[in-house]
Design goal:
three-stranded antiparallel beta sheet, six-stranded mixed beta sheet, alpha/beta, Rossmann fold, 337 residues
């Protein structure tokens, strides 16, 4: 027999303490009655109560609690050999969180639209691992590669423009971090999805892209913003909202910088670029042209041993014992005087 969740066995400690308490309470009650009065008189007064049945009730409750803990631990024995199909595509999302991503030239703003687009991509995935790197002047691995899409969405939801230091957007560092995040991955196909408005003040971007190409890591790009651009809002110290200005006092108009996408596509020779728009047509294009094709090649069969779950019998036994305990009456049906 094996246990799927052996950590639940720690619950045996409080259960054993409860059992000890119940038996100790029964013993103390007997002693207390002996102290209170004459033994023969007490015997007559309590002649309608069965000590044996009272002990039986305590034993039934105790065994039921023990069986419940065993059921929680997930006992398994016996197994089946099954063929499981698994996908081998790992996707690392590079999400720009620089201040320019707060521009409202797309609604509600660039960052929120980017989050919506990424969530739409998650809905298309079927078993692929996905991770998240956020970047601006520096980069942070927000979520390692995982197949738990709910956990990924939780990390994505917490993303804002104050997560990393600013001082310009360094795309090269972000790409390098994404590349390193694949270390230890056994996946044959690895994908980087770059989500940005195209602003880049780094010096090592081309070298980082060349490194991706050398490692055969596929790169897809999603541009967020408009060519016309928009102002960058920020909250002032007094709580009011203003718009970012340059050192000359002019409002900063942030535009979608398409040159960086063209440069990256030229280096990789196969980089797919689409512009983010409300709806899911843009991500669908990336999915169909890139990720889905990789998945079609990488669906592979593996043999796994599927153990049979046996917790049901322990749980059923525990419930039956509780039912039996509730049906037992401590009082005798006939009393002799």
């Amino acid at each position: 027999m094996r246990l799927e969740n052996p950590l639940y066995l720690w619950f045996l400690i409080p259960v054993i303490l409860i059992i000890i308490f119940m038996f100790d309470s029964y013993r103390r009650k007997k002693k207390l009655l002996a102290i209170l009065g004459d033994g023969n008189l007490l015997k007559k007064l309590s002649s309608s109560l069965s000590k044996f049945l009272r002990k039986c009730k305590i034993v039934l409750i105790s065994v039921s609690l023990l069986l419940s803990v065993i059921a929680m631990a997930g006992p398994q024995w016996g197994y089946k050999i099954e063929q499981a199909k698994t996908r081998g595509v790992d996707i690392m999302v590079l999400l720009d969180v620089s201040r320019s991503m707060l521009a409202e030239d797309v609604k509600p703003n660039r960052l929120q639209l980017a989050k919506t687009e990424i969530r739409q991509l998650i809905d298309m995935l079927r078993g692929d691992r996905i991770g998240l790197v956020v970047f601006s002047g520096s980069s942070v691995l927000q979520c390692p590669l995982t197949t738990d899409y709910a956990v990924f969405d939780m990390f994505l939801n917490d993303v804002d423009t104050d997560m990393v230091s600013h001082g310009g957007t360094d795309l090269g560092k972000a790409v390098s971090m994404a590349s390193k995040s694949f270390e230890g991955s056994e996946s044959k196909y690895r994908v980087v999805l770059l989500v940005t408005d195209g602003e880049d003040h780094g010096k090592d971007t081309e070298a980082a892209i060349e490194d991706l190409k050398a490692k055969k890591i596929h790169l897809y790009m999603l541009g967020v913003g408009t060519i016309k651009g928009g102002l960058i809002p920020f909250r002032k110290e007094d709580g009011s909202t203003g718009y970012l200005k340059d050192k000359n006092g002019n409002y900063v108009n942030s535009k979608l910088e398409t040159e960086i996408f063209a440069k990256i596509a030229k280096i990789t020779g196969s980089g797919v670029y689409v512009k983010a728009m409300p709806g899911d047509e843009d991500l669908m294009e990336i999915y169909k042209k890139g990720i889905a094709k990789l998945e079609e090649r990488e669906i592979k069969a593996s043999t796994i041993r599927r153990y049979e779950e046996r917790y049901q019998m322990f749980l059923l036994a525990a419930l039956l014992l509780l039912v039996a305990e509730s049906l037992i009456e401590e009082r005798k049906k006939e009393v002799e005087y």
